[in-house]
Amino acid sequence: MALLLRTISELRSHLTAHRQGSRGNIGLVPTMGALHQGHLSLIERAIAENGIVVVSIFVNPLQFAPTEDLGDYPRQLEQDLKFCREIGVDLVFAPEPKELNSTGDTQALNGTTSVIPPQSMTEILCGKYRPGHFTGVATIVSKLFNIIQPDKAYFGQKDAQQLAIIRRLVKDLNIPVEIVPCPIIREVSGLALSSRNQYLSTTEKKQAAEIYRSLQSAQVAFTNGELNTAALVNLVKRQLNSTEEVKIQYVELVDPVSLQAIKQIHQAGLLAIAVHLGSTRLIDNIVLQKRQPIVAIDGPAGAGKSTVTRRLAQELGLLYLDTGAMYRAVTWLVMESRIAIDEEKAIANLLTDLDLKLTSPDSAELPTVVHINNQEVTNAIRTPEVTANVSAIAAQAAVRAKLVSMQQQWGEQGGLIAEGRDIGTNVFPNAELKIFLTATAAERARRRMQDLKDQGRDDIDVKQLEQDIKSRDEQDSQRAIAPLKQADDAIELITDNLSIEEVIEKISKLYNQIIEG
Ligand code: PAF
User: Residue 364 has what pLDDT?
Assistant: First the structure.
């Protein structure tokens, strides 16, 4: 795996063979090497979404000014290759500069045709201090797109100006590639990962954590209603200035798409920072945006939560956060790894590098598409063996903590709907709309009996069913982890005399009231 290719012709012949075999999309992750966990997240996503993945490694001389660190920029091809092999990259394209110069006879790319992005996007933020940088980026990225012709290309949100310029580039030049933005990956301290962090001393790394803290303060002020650019920018500057070693180059708030200055946030604002710490230049940013609401549906078993949630997700255009599928996926992984269900420690270890992806299916009737550690398990997680073990796994504190934190991370963007027994009380206590969907035990017993009858069973004692349901409710509300509880601000919906359509209509109405403010 991870074949190293040095020339365009070698690369093209591999890609042609791939296309002829119709083995799925081509994904590209363009990099300058010195790969770290930030790149890893781009590459893993590319692997999950494509049939073949090319990682390009090229320290592009065109994007460095003569005064910048081109000579010193970390180069570690052997280590990068090992990294790519371990995560399952197919092809690593690492050309020499002369390979990318059509005349082939110089070491650098000087004199090549340039791709010049709109001045309005390059004369601000980093572009103001790095003249020519984004022309260098746009030129090399266009060359990579032409050489590789990827279906999708992955870029980190950390270089937000680069991302906006490349999105504009593919639009303006009609390049048929989907640009996939990937979230910033941070150290525990909040410091955004970057190849240039290698230049920082331990003390500087601690000081650098102030950058993200200042962005977080702005996020808090914004969440509390501060929309004014000057106020937000000043807040960040004041906080950065409290660490003497951090020298601000700029703090700006701009429109995330056009990159033009804004006086106030209407829908979204890109708050971007560049500072110097010793001789190292660091950048970071955050997008402040009014998020789409989160809808949290809690309630006892058998009240119809999952059907209603699925249908609402389709109807309201929200992501269905299928928490049940997440617990099933972990259960499947534990069983697949041959770890006993009660080995909590080993299970916790198994989850340290967990990579879990949920994708909405094409219709509400189909199950959520699930990938765990890059393997599609949509059907494998729905076997009777998994069903038999999922409750025991879901009751483990480490499993719960890990999955709840993943759910909350997804929730940061808003725009999702989730159901469970503790979604509104524990996972999303700030959800904009909380519904407690319930029905009397007698009604739930009646529905269950109907289901069983439809499956050909007519030996059911409805009174016994009702009794079982009552004792399950009792157990669920007593359990130590994630007990069933109605949040104070949840709207109770008793569905005894309502059809599914009526329930959906009621919740849609409540949702639309929130959207319309
Ligand atoms: O973000 C980077 O690493 C570079 O700017 C890129 C996109 C690989 C172009 O050289």
Answer: 74
